[in-house]
């Protein structure tokens, strides 16, 4: 039992969780303007788009796939939302249409990957460009800003004087659903098997292609939800909304210990990674670090996140080895 | 413990008082072993006895916790397999270690390809040397095809070719024959004899005892990591050897019960997959064990894969209990009561870095569920139940399967499928790498399943196993069924004749 406690101590997702707490505590103490409720609500609100997409992305990476078109899907659904609003449609009709659009985007990715057997990295780099291009065709260089105020307020406001944005509450519900789906259902279990050894998963009667298709579709849906949230949160629907968001999402998810090769990781780790990245970005903005430098930091984190879990694993293997060597030699 | 006077030749390679532990598992304790030139030395022992660990220690994969490796009498430390290779030690590991994206030739000559001017790789020479090796082993494999997708038997052949590709003073082979049929084994043994006559020392592991008696002069037995004996094989009987391995007398190896066959459970009609197998028709009845024999490459595994739905078939149909199975859909085949224990446990049977519990659990994702959620308690008890029934040797059920010995991994694959309670069970090399004691257990289990009304189709390269267990033997040759032989007429001769296409049946 002592072994497993030790092994757990160096598990990467725990490390990231601890790191998040350390960064928050340090920032409270040392960064001016960090600890007040308003700033914290900004931190959370600005991190929510990454967090929302990180939910399905985590499941996708666990199953050994990736979707880089998410930010473009988000941008496309924001653009369509703006265009339809200009046409005079009600927001209650527009939102379902946009969500459906996200489903279609995800389905296209999924079909290309599962039916044609193309690598998801290549497919979604292609649709990354395609979906963004369509967004530009749909909305041009317009910026639509005059959405109904109650929606804008919901997407950017917070509960009273607390640090909790309204939108954080539905996110928590989605998070709970995703945690259960990945860690407590047969579906989630099958994703780990697919990611670790797809052939063995097929031999165990797991419907690999179907599961992947479901995942890509869900990812498209969440990406368009994020696009809608983004347009309302920043009160601006433009074709280039959320550009580059996929990098932050992938960086955060890998930082949270989801193995790029598939088959390993926890959603808790991924979300800790997301908010760690969000907190760092917030602190850097408060310290007037330039946007370019922030991108460099994200890049460095991405490299660290790929190295970190490996180093952690090696440490725990080395410890196991040392334990074995020092074990008594009588049985 | 040593078996010779100082008069004889000196050992080329020796282990002295070697110990090695993995966590709490003591895989080797104070084991010594000497390999002499011109001698084939057998290493025997049950699954998990420590044979592979000993070999990996000899080859520099593992560092011993205590003890010495002696090369020509001098204490040596191998820092890795490359060191051992440079010392003239060729090793065939139990689990093939080929690079799937490299060609067969590239795999064989990995890192030591013949060169042309300016250090460019001489592909022609590589190709030619590979062909020559294949010829020596009597197999037809295209040197330029990638290793991906090779059957387990072919992978083993490539590993053997790799080991033979340089002039080794010491050849170490960990279960090289586990997936081979009689004729390939005969070829391999021919090569081994030549090497021995040239003065190489050979260490050989196999769970097929008759092979040990055929080719070896000396046998060392391990039990639970400890050395039991090291002695000449002359005058020993199989029973003697088994007693040393398992510490007791063995029950019957082929405990076949007589069962009256019931209705047809699995019916395969005119099944064809172009270029792979053609017009294959057969039935398996409830209570029957049907053996499927044939040479490596005859298409036996491919038929099993198609029936289960891993590969699509081009023509024909498959019925289970009178209901047609969907083409290319393992999940529906499974739901209908079909189970397939695949031949390649590492690639197809197991998720190597998942726990024993969850590997067995993978076939229960539909059953160990409560209100749509996994029921961890049900999953654990199902997995434990079968791990215990098959006597899997493990430290904790939550340990990953890659910490298990080869034979114990195989038991986990069996457990995983038996846990589904199948109506029709297809087993592809069910006892590959399993020790005699457990082999008898597996056979008893198959026999019991049949007696309980399960229809069993057993693919095996181990002819005695087919003859001992099958009610009927189907034989394939080059993608076609060439014979159906009832138990009473099945002999080594009739089966081999059909398998090589010489049958009049
Ligand atoms: N990397 C490892 N980590 C932990 N335990 C291990 C590891 N490798 C081997 N073992 C354990 O050491 C013991 C001996 O294993 P080994 O593979 O040497 O057995 P073996 O005699 O080759 O068996 P088999 O006939 O099944 O191949 C087993 O109990 C096994 O579980
Ligand atoms: Mg072994």
UniProtKB/TrEMBL annotation, chain A:
Pfam families named in the record: BPD_transp_2 (PF02653)
Mark the transmembrane ranges.
Answer: 12-31, 37-61, 91-113, 120-139, 163-182, 213-236, 291-312
In which domain of life is the source organism classified? Bacteria
Q: Does the keyword Repeat apply?
A: no
Compartments annotated for it: namely: Cell membrane
Keywords for this protein? Cell inner membrane, Cell membrane, Membrane, Transmembrane, Transmembrane helix, Transport
What does the record say about its membrane topology? Multi-pass membrane protein
Protein name as catalogued: Autoinducer 2 import system permease protein LsrD
Identify the species of origin: Streptomyces phaeochromogenes
TrEMBL record, chain B:
Q: Which residues form the ABC transporter domain?
A: 13-249, 259-503
Q: Enumerate the transmembrane spans.
A: none
Is S-adenosyl-L-methionine included in the keywords of this UniProt record?
no
| The keyword Translocase belongs to this UniProt entry's keyword annotation | yes
PROSITE patterns with a match to the protein in the record: ABC_TRANSPORTER_1 (PS00211), ABC_TRANSPORTER_2 (PS50893)
Q: Which domain of life is it from?
A: Bacteria
Gene3D superfamilies from the xrefs?
P-loop containing nucleotide triphosphate hydrolases (3.40.50.300)
Keywords, comma-separated and alphabetical: ATP-binding, Cell membrane, Membrane, Nucleotide-binding, Repeat, Sugar transport, Translocase, Transport
User: Can you provide one Gene Ontology molecular function annotated for this UniProt record?
Assistant: ATP binding
Q: What is this protein called?
A: Sugar ABC transporter ATP-binding protein
């Amino acid at each position: 039992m002592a072994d497993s406690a030790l092994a757990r101590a160096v598990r990467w997702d725990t490390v990231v969780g601890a790191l998040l707490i350390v960064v928050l505590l340090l920032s409270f103490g040392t960064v001016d303007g960090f600890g007040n409720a308003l700033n914290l609500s900004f931190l959370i609100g600005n991190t929510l788009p990454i967090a929302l997409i990180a939910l399905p992305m985590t499941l996708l990476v666990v199953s050994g796939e990736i979707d880089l078109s998410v930010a473009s899907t988000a941008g496309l659904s924001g653009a369509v939302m703006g265009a339809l609003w200009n046409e005079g449609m009600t927001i209650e009709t527009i939102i379902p249409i946009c969500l459906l659009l996200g489903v279609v985007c995800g389905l296209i990715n999924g079909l290309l990957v599962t039916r044609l057997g193309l690598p998801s990295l290549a497919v979604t780099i292609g649709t990354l460009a395609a979906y963004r291009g369509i967004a530009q065709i749909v909305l041009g260089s317009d910026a639509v800003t005059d959405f109904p105020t109650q929606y804008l307020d919901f997407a950017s406001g917070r509960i009273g004087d607390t640090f909790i944005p309204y939108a954080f509450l539905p996110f928590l519900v989605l998070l709970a659903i995703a945690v259960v789906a990945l860690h407590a259902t047969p579906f989630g279990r099958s994703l780990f098997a697919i990611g670790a050894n797809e052939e063995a998963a097929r031999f165990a009667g797991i419907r690999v292609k179907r599961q992947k298709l479901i995942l890509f579709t869900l990812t498209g849906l969440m990406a368009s939800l994020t696009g809608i949230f983004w347009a309302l949160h920043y009160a601006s629907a433009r074709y280039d909304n959320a550009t580059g968001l996929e990098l932050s999402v992938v960086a955060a998810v890998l930082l949270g210990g989801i193995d790029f090769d598939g088959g390993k990781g926890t959603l808790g780790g991924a979300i800790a990674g997301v908010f760690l990245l969000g907190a760092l970005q917030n602190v850097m903005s408060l310290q007037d670090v330039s946007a370019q430098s922030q991108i460099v930091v994200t890049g460095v984190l991405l490299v660290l996140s790929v190295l970190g879990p490996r180093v952690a694993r090696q440490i725990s293997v080395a410890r196991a080895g040392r334990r074995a060597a020092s074990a008594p030699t009588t049985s | 413990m040593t078996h010779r006077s100082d008069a004889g030749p000196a050992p080329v390679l020796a282990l002295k008082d070697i110990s090695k532990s993995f966590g709490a598992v003591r895989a080797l304790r104070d084991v010594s072993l000497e390999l002499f030139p011109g001698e084939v030395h057998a290493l025997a022992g049950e699954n998990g006895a420590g044979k592979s660990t000993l070999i990996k220690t000899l080859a520099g994969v593992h560092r011993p916790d205590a003890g010495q490796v002696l090369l020509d009498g001098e204490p040596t430390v191998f820092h890795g397999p490359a060191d051992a290779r440079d010392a003239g030690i060729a090793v065939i590991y139990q689990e093939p270690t080929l690079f799937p994206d490299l060609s067969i030739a590239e795999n064989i000559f990995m890192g030591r390809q013949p060169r042309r001017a300016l250090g460019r790789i001489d592909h022609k020479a590589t190709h030619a040397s590979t062909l020559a090796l294949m010829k020596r082993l009597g197999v037809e494999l295209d040197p330029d095809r990638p290793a991906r997708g090779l059957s387990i038997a072919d992978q083993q052949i490539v590993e053997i070719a790799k080991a033979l590709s340089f002039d080794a003073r010491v050849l170490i082979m960990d279960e090289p024959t586990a997936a081979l049929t009689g004729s390939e084994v005969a070829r391999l043994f021919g090569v081994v004899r030549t090497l021995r006559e040239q003065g190489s020392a050979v260490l050989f592991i196999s769970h097929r005892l008759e092979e040990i008696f055929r080719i070896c002069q000396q046998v060392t037995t391990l039990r639970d990591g400890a050395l039991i004996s090291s002695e000449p094989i002359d005058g020993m009987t199989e029973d003697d050897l088994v007693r040393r391995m398992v510490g007791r007398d063995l029950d019957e190896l082929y405990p076949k019960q007589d069962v009256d066959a019931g209705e047809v459970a699995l019916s395969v009609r005119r099944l064809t997959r172009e270029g792979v197998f053609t017009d294959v028709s057969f039935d398996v009845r409830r209570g029957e064990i049907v053996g499927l024999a044939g040479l490596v490459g005859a298409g036996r595994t491919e038929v099993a894969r198609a029936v289960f739905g891993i590969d699509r078939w081009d023509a024909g149909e498959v019925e289970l209990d009178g209901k047609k199975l969907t083409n290319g859909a393992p999940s529906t085949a499974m739901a209908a009561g079909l189970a397939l224990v695949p031949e390649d446990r590492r690639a197809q049977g197991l998720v190597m870095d998942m726990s024993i519990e969850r590997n067995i659990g993978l076939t229960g994702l539909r059953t160990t569920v409560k209100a749509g959620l996994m029921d961890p308690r049900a999953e654990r008890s199902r997995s434990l139940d079968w791990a215990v029934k098959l006597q899997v040797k493990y430290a904790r059920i939550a340990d990953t399967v890659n910490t298990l010995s080869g034979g114990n991994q195989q038991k986990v694959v069996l457990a995983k499928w038996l846990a589904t309670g199948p109506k029709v069970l297809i087993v592809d090399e069910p006892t590959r790498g399993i020790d005699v004691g457990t082999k008898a257990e597996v056979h008893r289990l198959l026999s019991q399943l049949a007696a309980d009304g399960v229809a069993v189709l057993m693919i095996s390269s181990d002819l005695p196993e087919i003859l001992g267990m099958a009610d009927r033997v189907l034989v394939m040759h080059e993608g076609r069924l060439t014979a159906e032989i009832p138990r009473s007429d099945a002999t080594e001769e009739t089966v081999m004749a059909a398998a090589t296409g010489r049958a009049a049946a």
